[in-house]
Amino acid sequence: MNNLKVSIITVCFNAEKTILKTVKSVLNQRYSNIEYIIIDGASTDNTLAELSAYSNNEFKLISEKDNGLYDAINKGISLASGDIIGLLHSDDIYPNEDVISTVVSYFQEDTLLEALSSSVEIYKTDNFAKPYRIYKANKFKNWQFKIGIQPPHPGFFITKVAFNKVGYYRTQYKISGDFDWLLRAIVLNHIKVKFVPFVSVFMLDGGLSSSGWKSKVKMNNENLRILKSHGIYSNKFLIYLKYFLKIFQIRGL
After folding, report:
1. Taking Cα atoms as reference points, which of 108, 97, 74, 92 lies closest to residue 180?
2. Is CB count within 10 Å lower at the N or C end of the chain?
């Protein structure tokens, strides 16, 4: 497990305001064996112009129309050649230069480890000065899938071998494809995951699942469909119970 290659995938669309911070946080990593792949959904703003400041050998860039977020993620993973795969969205950053070195160290310490679930801090503004919530991976328990709670997806790193067991993200889900994929990985395929308090990602609030109440309703409905499709019982009361539990993620509580 020495000199592990890590593939990091960033999916973006019209991300001109945040993409450079994301890219810099990857390129500034001290760990040298990183393959960086950016999948752009044919942005119509200045995203590609911002990325043009970098040379072709600093990352692999694909820009074309896609069928949504999870289709774009699948494209990136299909190109990945690393031993370990991680995702970093276009408005998120790695908080320091040693994130990937730390991630790799967990896999080196336990050669049977198939995935690492690390913690994520969530911010309201992109200066990342003060976290609004702390999403602690080490607090997650498998039963929480039944109420629509999953480990922090941006902080999840998986070996390519284990990913191939789980399979690609299912594109029929527009908001909860990561919920379905993590459920398949952890509960159905029983991959060996280590849940750690280490914070690997600063995440900007406002993604698909948190952009308004309508999106939350759609996400919860998708979560129920996913649980039912895998033969796991839940109901709307249980799914909405998670908002009470999330109160305890707010900083200061």
Report:
1. 74
2. C
Name the burial class of residue 186, with classes exposed (0-12), middle (13-18) and buried (19+) by CB atoms within 10 angstroms of its CB. Answer: buried
Q: What is the pLDDT of residues 147-187, one digit of tens each?
A: 999 999 999 999 999 999 999 999 999 999 999 999 999 99
> What tokens appear for 184 in the block?
């398949």
Q: Which of 119, 118, 99, 75 is nearest to 6 (CA)?
A: 99
Please give the structure tokens belonging to residue 99.
């994130």
Q: Are 45 and 118 in contact (CB under 8 A)?
A: no
Residue type, 20: L
Q: Which domains does the chain have, with CATH numbers?
A: 6-249 (3.90.550.10)
Helix (H, G, I), strand (E, B) or coil at 25: helix
At 9, phi and psi to the nearest 5? Answer: -120, 130
Phi/psi for 84 (5° steps) reads -125, 140
Query: What is the C-alpha to C-alpha distance for residues 176 and 161, in angstroms, rounded to an integer?
Result: 23
Whole-structure pTM value: 0.92
pLDDT at residue 212 greater than cutoff 90: no
Smallest CA-to-CA distance from 167 within 153, 183, 150 is with 183
Q: Residue 61 class from Cβ within 10 Å (0-12 exposed, 13-18 middle, 19+ buried)?
A: middle
